[in-house]
Each structure stands twice: as structure tokens, then as C-alpha cells.
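Final report, closing paragraph on structural work. Over the funding period we assembled a curated collection of sequence-structure pairs, and we close with a single example.
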Amino acid sequence: MGKPKAKRRLGENQAKSFGKLLRGSPQKLNLVAQTIRGKEASKALAELTFSRRRIAVEVKKVLESAIANAENNHQLDVDRLYVKEATVGKSLEMKRFRPRARGRVGRIRKPFSNLTVIVEEREEAE
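Its predicted structure, as stored:
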């Protein structure tokens, strides 16, 4: 029996990938996500490959996963894909402490982030 299949929330020409617990602050991750929004998938991959930011490696993995989902699960044409959305969210935060002078303590925050990438297939321009 089980429960009925959930309806698909995305369009027929869209595919999604979600990256959980990416080690880095949402503010820094959003800087990288801004560079790929609205670009063709191949150009976005090239830009992430040569980006000097550490988090760009993780963003590239999530984008590659979205492209693979589009190709394998939804039979979309990889050459016509572009990044429709790249949204960043805040996740958990590890808190660490470092001893400081005169019995005080310095708090160290180690933030994690979530990333959602949605790719969409462009219609053919005739």
C-alpha cells in the first residue's frame, strides 16, 4: 500500500539538486552562487572550475549533480541547460571556544550552509 506518489513541484523541463551541510558561511557561498545564476550550464561549470574560492569545488559538485539528474531522470538535453536558480540557506553552526587572557573565552563559530541548484532546459530559438 504505502502513501501515494507526491506531485512533482518543478516543471517538466527542470531538474534540481540539493547540497546539505556545505562547510562555509552562507555569505561566502552566496558570492559563488551569484556568479553562476542565469548562465549556461557548461559556462557555469567552466567558471567554477577556475574559481579560486574553496567553496567553488562543492558548488561545482552540486551543479554537476543537477545536470546528471536532468539527463538521467528527466531526459533533458544537456547542451540546452542553464542555471535557473541557485539559492543559499543557513544550516547548523558548530560552536567552539578558545581560552583568552584573564580567564575569558573567545567564541569560534563554524557555520554550515545549504545550496539548491535548479537547471532548466531552454526552448529552441528558431
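The chain has one domain: 15-121. The first helix runs from residue 26 to 36. We thank the funder for supporting this effort.
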